Automatic annotation (TrEMBL):
One of its GO terms (biological process) is iron-sulfur cluster assembly. It comes from the Eukaryota. Keywords: Mitochondrion, Transit peptide. This is CAF17 C-terminal domain-containing protein. The lineage of its organism: Eukaryota, Viridiplantae, Streptophyta, Embryophyta, Tracheophyta. It is found in: Mitochondrion. One of its GO terms (cellular component) is mitochondrial matrix. It holds the Pfam family Beta-barrel_CAF17_C. Residues 250-331 form the CAF17 C-terminal domain. The keyword Signal does not apply. The keyword Mitochondrion applies. Its main location: mitochondrion.
Length: 339
């Protein structure tokens, strides 16, 4: 299971990401602030004394750090107020009071709740769909030097997205309220957030990261700080640990652009699950996992993708070239593996 963390009492995100750039690109900080209501996300609630222990045994990362695609938040207490900068202070919860909210992929909400309840066994934790009461929002293209949490007077906060700086801030808010600081931003459609995310090479949700099929390391979850190789067991740990310690990941998720023969971007000609092939050999290089207009992401064999532009085309649409855009946030060692 792939999973994200926000704010658990006394537990702070702790991560470092190395950067490597193969070519100059515009900095995300230059993009005007935007805020999107994420209608593709819903919210579930965990409550009970065994909540942390229960999640710790299921997830790929330490629940005290950063999780991926099941974003955890500690809801404010009814009597909690924030200070003027929105950081607030929270009294430590008693063990029986542990409560977490999680924003999750809408398309698998019922299946996810059912699966979590199946693994609950005798754990003292209640799992509830509260999607009608809460909504998930994302703020991006912002000044990333701001404090990591910004909120309103009733305690609901924005939390810095620990995957990448350019993804900005994320938060769960009551459905009948406007999130703080949205008034000063430009509210925009969720499709713009999806495009922003894809162009930075970050997949999210079960459509882009197919459940039961995706190998977390191929989707770069280790580079996005979503996997702990030090925590205890979780489902699928052996395969992930073995692949990691072998040191070479032959396929990875990469941002891609679709171009015509003149090098101009083409839109709406490529669909999800379309095959990418080598123009020289005709062999399959990988698969498009998501496409929006002329942009997308695909899981490709890195060795073939490194051969340069002009080598990759779409199967059945050989007039559509595929250009790989190497993310600036990729750790240098990922490039060295294939030099």
């Amino acid at each position: 299971m792939k999973i994200f963390k926000s704010s658990i009492p006394s537990l702070k995100p702790n991560f470092k990401i190395k950067y490597f750039s193969s070519s100059p690109k515009p900095q995300p900080d230059n993009v005007s602030p935007m805020a999107s209501l994420l209608k593709t996300r819903s919210v579930i609630r965990f409550r009970g004394p065994d909540t942390i222990k229960f999640l710790q045994g299921l997830l790929t990362n330490d629940v005290r750090r950063f999780l991926y695609d099941l974003f955890l938040y500690n809801p404010p207490r009814p009597d909690e107020k924030l200070d003027p900068i929105g950081s607030g202070s929270r009294p430590r919860l008693e063990q029986d009071e542990v409560e977490l909210l999680a924003d999750v992929d809408c398309s698998v909400l019922d299946e996810l709740v059912e699966t979590l309840k199946k693994y609950r066994l005798r754990s003292k934790v209640d799992i509830e769909n509260v999607g009608e009461s809460f909504s998930c929002w994302q703020r991006y293209g912002v000044n990333h030097n701001q404090r990591s949490s910004q909120g309103n007077s009733i305690g609901w906060k924005w939390h810095k997205d620990p995957r990448l700086d350019c993804l900005g801030f994320r938060g769960i808010f009551p459905s009948n309220t406007t999130p703080p600081m949205v008034e000063g931003d430009t509210e925009t459609k969720e499709e713009n957030y999806i495009l922003w995310r894809l162009e930075n090479g970050v997949a999210e949700g079960s459509i882009e990261i197919p459940k039961g099929e995706a190998i977390p390391l191929e989707y770069n979850l280790a580079g996005l700080n979503a996997i702990s190789f030090e925590k205890g067991c979780y489902i699928g740990q052996e395969l992930i640990a073995r692949s990691h310690h072998r040191g070479v990941i032959r396929k990875r998720l990469v941002p891609i652009k679709f171009l015509n023969q003149s090098g101009k971007e083409v839109e709406q000609k490529v669909g999800r699950s379309s095959e990418v092939i080598s123009m020289k050999s005709g062999k399959k290089v990988g698969m498009v996992t998501m496409a929006v207009g002329s942009s997308g992401v695909g899981v490709l064999r890195v060795e073939e993708a490194f051969k340069g532009s002009g080598n990759l085309v779409m199967k059945g649409e050989e007039d559509v070239k595929v250009e790989v855009v190497w993310p600036e946030w990729w750790p240098r060692e990922w490039f060295l593996e294939h030099e």
